[in-house]
Write a structure and sequence with these properties.
The complex is a heterodimer. Chain A has seven helices and six strands, in the order H-H-E-E-H-E-E-H-H-H-E-E-H. By secondary structure, chain A is mainly alpha-helical. Chain A has a three-stranded antiparallel β-sheet. A two-stranded antiparallel sheet of chain A has the order 1-2. In chain A, a hairpin with a 5-residue loop joins strand 1 (42-44) and strand 2. In chain A, helix 5 (140-147) crosses helix 6 (151-160) and helix 6 packs across helix 7 (177-184). The longest helix of chain A is centred in the first third of the chain and has 30 residues, at 4-33. Chain A is extended and about 75 Å long. By secondary structure, chain B is mostly helical. Chain B has a domain at 390-568. Helix content of chain B is 64%, strand content 4%. Chain B is built from 19 helices and five strands. The longest helix of chain B has 34 residues, at 535-568. The relative contact order of chain B is 0.12. The chains are: A mainly alpha, B mainly alpha. At the A-B interface, helix 1, strand 2, helix 3, strand 3 and strand 4 of A face helix 1, helix 2, helix 3, helix 6 and helix 7 of B. Strand 3 (115-116) of chain A pairs parallel with strand 3 of chain B.
Chain lengths: 188, 569
């Protein structure tokens, strides 16, 4: 029974060290070294207005914007308060119907040929901010037509928002959808 | 360089770094538990003085086990109270309400047992205080508990004619101060550099560039982005193989895992301690080859699992590709990690008892989903949880020694200790407890209408969801086929039971075995001794693991993922 006292007291000490001091210390150092990342990688315009986070995708459905991956989060697409996957199983008939509808919508928008899977399958967080360069390229002519600008101009914005694999080998090349659309609107 | 070559290269890099760290970290951990490292002695001694711990006092296995249980009880009670009272406490900028009692029970047990099964959505349910002083703290404490138990078992092998297996309070404190905390601090800062957030701000409202329409047809011009002290939690959640996400999307959320580099770092953190503990084991029993042998068996099982999962996902879902879609199965995967970065994470998190996810296992192809499920069902012996994995693996090694001893007519010995009836009993309890719980509770769910109604997907896939849920909870993993709506009384309460049994029955059996082994004398190896640090034994051990796993779970797996796969062709 003499071990009850250390059980309670050590727990309290650990609460102070690991539950209090540790996160506070990390926050302090993070703010000093990486303030932008610690606060959510927010995109801020010249007037100081916050336009969103470069890490959190936004919904786009108008033809003059680059469309992101499908989302279908609760309440509305790309709802940042409702992260999490669709958890649809691969043989679920409702899910397969949804995918077929997404394929049809893309065909209706003028995309021909094979469709990259990420354009009809939702991500794990359903907040994925990226598309592959191939999936972005498929949308360039639609965006150019809707805006009445040259395809090369759109493609240049896409290229400018493309991140290569990190250190040349980690992960895959990816296009930040929000960055492209901010560029298209000339906001940034 | 082609994309697929690059994808495989990133896997290679992770393993080169990991294997390079095994020896330094493994011997460091051994030195910490042997009391040879004392650079934090002032802090350590202060803690012992305040808490009334006699540093040099050795404990027999009963007292060691009782101390462990007391400490875990305190953990449980405190988290239970915190979840029910969070609305009255500070650091709750979103004014989140308390948890209901069934969810509280499930969650408090979940974090105390290092399971981190989550029937709630972090950004919608937990205050910053709950995340830090509740979940974050439990991530440290439950990991340090698991490490203490395996160190006690290792002492059982290395000590001779001793009645003691160490001091729980000292092991707990040293594991936390010297191992978990320093690595977490460095890892958390590296994660912030990649974009993992770390702040105490209220949730942020930002405008939408293109106004959007909600499902309720109302125009929407801005959205609310959750904030919080994420990086400090992310680091220990992976390092301690806990796996409870700050956000509902867990490590697939861009704020938890923003870049391919953060992804590789998180995979490394998950594997780091469980892998290095094999070296600690070899070091402490005086023969590092014993540790390398166990590690080689684990790596073999891991690589086979990774290759199968990667193949299944790259082939993709034939029901989707026939619609004119190309490429790997991307449902439930983030683009930035690549397929290999998602597959390796899935394998790492279920080979250990981590349970963090960067892709949604429910949306894997049927054969892909079979892999994480099988890794959990095998008892998480491929690395396993910090501590718990290695002690389960050692129980398998004892069974393997025993069976081979019977076959070749030799007295079973392991590491110079004669293996007798009591050790066999404890090993069997350690290995089979979780499996028995999984099969009984999954069976019970199948005949309970309210439990069946929780399935998100119909047919064979629904069975996989339930099987995965109880496998995950009984083995203290915490990942899920997350479509299953488990926040209902059936899963909250029986899940709490599964997690409790799955954690403490094996832990107590292991500590008892540590006590029995420590009392024995050491027999020097003779010509009749089966060498347990050579390749034939490694192969034998892998076979024993696969046979026990197959015999226990093949029927259930055949009805779930395998039937689903066949139905797809």
């Amino acid at each position: 029974m003499k071990d009850i006292k250390p059980a309670i007291l050590l727990f309290i000490m650990f609460t102070i060290i690991c539950g209090g001091i540790y996160p506070a210390l990390v926050t302090g150092v993070a703010y000093a070294l990486f303030p932008n990342q610690a606060k959510g990688s927010l995109i801020i315009d010249k007037a100081g207005k916050e336009l969103g986070s470069s890490l959190i995708g936004q919904p786009f459905s108008d033809p003059q914007y680059l469309w992101p991956r499908p989302s279908a989060t609760a309440e509305f697409d790309y709802n940042p308060s409702a992260s999490g996957g669709s958890n649809s199983g691969p043989t679920n008939p409702d899910y397969l119907k949804t995918v077929a509808e997404r394929v049809k919508a893309l065909r209706d928008s003028g995309i021909t040929g094979p469709i990259p899977a990420e354009l009809v399958q939702a991500s794990a967080s359903r907040l994925d901010p990226h598309l592959s360069p191939q999936a972005a390229r498929l949308q360039v002519s639609r965006i150019a037509k809707a805006r009445g600008i040259a395809e090369a101009t759109v493609q240049k914005l896409v290229d400018g928002a493309t991140e290569e694999p990190q250190l040349g080998i980690l992960g895959v090349a990816r296009v930040n959808v929000l960055a492209v659309n901010l560029g298209l609107d000339g906001v940034r | 360089m082609s994309q697929s070559m690059g994808e495989l290269l990133q896997i290679l890099i992770i393993f080169v770094v990991l294997l390079a760290l095994v020896k330094p970290l493994g011997s460091f951990m051994a030195s910490v538990y042997l009391g040879k490292f004392t650079f934090l002695a002032p802090l350590e001694n202060l803690l012992y003085r305040i808490c009334g711990v006699q540093q040099d006092e050795e404990m027999g296995w009963q007292r060691y086990a009782a101390s462990m249980l007391f400490f875990n009880l305190v953990m449980f009670v405190s988290l239970f109270a915190l979840l029910l009272l969070q609305h009255l406490l500070p650091l709750n900028p979103q004014k989140l309400p308390p948890f209901n009692w069934q969810l509280t029970l499930n969650t408090a047990i979940s974090f105390t047992t290092n399971t981190n099964w989550q029937n709630y959505s972090g950004e919608q349910a937990a205050s910053y205080l709950t995340q830090m002083a509740g979940f974050g703290l439990h991530n440290f404490a439950s990991a340090a508990t698991g490490m203490a138990i395996v160190i006690a078992l290792i002492r059982g092998f290395s000590r001779r004619k001793s009645s003691a297996i160490g001091n729980f309070w000292v092991d707990l404190t040293r594991g936390t101060l010297y191992i978990l905390l320093p690595i977490s601090i460095v890892a958390a800062l590296l994660l912030v550099s990649q974009g993992v957030i770390q702040n105490f701000s209220p949730y942020k409202t930002v405008p939408l560039l293109q106004a959007s329409q909600g499902r309720d047809r109302l125009e929407l011009e801005s959205v609310t982005i959750p904030m919080g002290p994420v990086a400090s939690q992310e680091a220990i959640k992976e390092l301690g193989t806990n796996g409870g996400g700050f956000f509902n999307a867990n490590s697939s959320h861009p704020f938890e895992n923003p870049t391919p580099l953060s992804n590789c770092l998180e995979i490394l953190l998950i594997l780091l301690i469980p892998v290095s503990l094999t070296y600690t084991f070899g070091y402490m029993v005086g023969n590092t080859r014993q540790g390398w042998m166990l590690l080689s068996v684990m790596l073999f099982l891991l690589f086979v699992s990774f290759a199968l999962l990667q193949w299944a996902e790259v082939v993709g879902n034939p029901l989707v590709t026939r619609l004119g879609v190309v490429g790997a199965n991307m449902e439930g995967k983030e683009l930035r990690f690549g397929i290999s970065g998602s597959s390796l994470f899935s394998v790492a998190t279920t080979a250990t008892s981590c349970g963090a996810v960067n892709s949604m296992h429910d949306s894997l192809t049927p054969l892909g989903g079979l892999i994480p499920l099988s890794l959990i069902l095998l008892g998480e012996i491929v690395f396993g949880g910090v501590g718990s994995g290695l002690y389960t693996m050692l129980a398998f090694a004892i069974i393997a020694v025993f069976v081979s001893g019977l076959m070749i007519g030799r007295t079973p010995e392991y590491l110079g200790k004669k293996i007798e009836v009591k050790e066999i009993w404890m090993s069997i309890i350690t290995i089979l407890t979780a499996g028995v719980v999984v099969l009984i509770l999954s069976g019970l769910a199948m005949i309970t209408p309210s439990a069946v109604a929780s399935m998100a997907n119909p047919g064979a896939h629904g069975l996989s969801e339930v099987l995965y849920a109880f496998a995950s909870m009984a083995n203290n993993n915490g990942s899920a086929f997350a479509g299953l709506n488990a926040n209902v009384p059936f899963y909250n309460l029986l899940g709490a039971l599964a997690m409790t049994i799955g954690r403490y029955i094996p832990a107590l059996a292991v500590l008892a075995m540590a006590g029995f082994l420590a009392e024995k004398k050491c027999i020097p190896p003779s010509l009749g001794t089966l060498p347990t640090d050579k390749l034939p034994f490694a192969l034998w051990l892998a076979l024993v693991i696969l046979i026990v796993g197959a015999l226990t779970f093949f029927p259930a797996l055949a009805l779930g993922p395998i039937v689903e796969h066949l139905s797809m062709q």
